[in-house]
Design brief:
Shape: globular
Organism: Aspergillus nomiae NRRL (strain ATCC 15546 / NRRL 13137 / CBS 260.88 / M93)
Order of helices and strands: HEEEHEEH
Largest sheet: 5 strands, antiparallel
Strand content: 15-25%
Pfam families: HIT
Radius of gyration: 17 Å
Protein name: Adenosine 5'-monophosphoramidase HNT1
Number of domains: 1
Catalytic activity: adenosine 5'-phosphoramidate + H2O = NH4(+) + AMP
CATH topology: HIT family, subunit A
Oligomer: single chain
Low-confidence stretches: none
Strand order of the largest sheet: 1-2-3-5-4
Bound molecules: guanosine-5'-monophosphate, zinc ion
Structural class: alpha+beta
Number of helices: 3
Mean pLDDT: 97
Keywords: Hydrolase, Magnesium, Nucleotide-binding
Length: 136
């Protein structure tokens, strides 16, 4: 595990800051969000300190979605969002990668999402597709 002494989520993993732990393995840790958007809102974090998804080794990410499923089922969430923010402008506040599992029980509780869809442009999509394929 890679850890940062100043990071609140690294402190939660170590138990230096208390949390309502829901799941733990050698690679990940899951716990209740302290300011939930809805009942059952939980966070899943890798036991590897990194700010953005691109900083985290793949082996720390393998269990994330299976655990998100477990958390959604445990919260009896039939409608829910799995969210992971990268960077301040993308609404990331805590600089240790975390995945939210946010139940959406009704219109007002849970995640609200802005979705500024752009018009379909096949020429642009085709050019982008070629560029991205060449880089993956
Ligand atoms: P972000 O906006 O970075 O994606 O979300 C950070 C989340 O971490 C927020 O939902 C916030 O409520 C949660 N959070 C911040 N500090 C703590 C803490 O000390 N304990 C817990 N359980 N959650 C925290
Ligand atoms: Zn950390």
């Amino acid at each position: 595990m890679s850890s940062s002494a100043a990071c609140i989520f690294c402190k939660i993993i170590k138990g230096d800051i208390p949390s309502f732990k829901l799941f733990e393995s050698d690679k990940i840790f899951a716990f209740l969000d302290i300011q939930p958007l809805s009942r059952g809102h939980a966070l899943i974090i890798p036991k590897f300190h990194g700010e953005k998804l691109t900083d985290i080794p793949d082996e720390y990410l393998n269990e994330v979605l299976p655990v998100a499923k477990k958390l959604a089922k445990a919260a009896d969430a039939t409608d829910f969002n799995v969210l992971q923010n990268n960077g301040t402008i993308a609404h990331q506040v805590v600089p240790h990668v975390h995945f939210h599992m946010i139940p959406k029980p009704n219109e007002t509780e849970g995640l609200g999402v802005g979705w500024p869809a752009q018009a379909t442009d096949m020429d642009k999509l085709k050019a982008l597709h070629e560029e991205l394929k060449s880089k993956i």
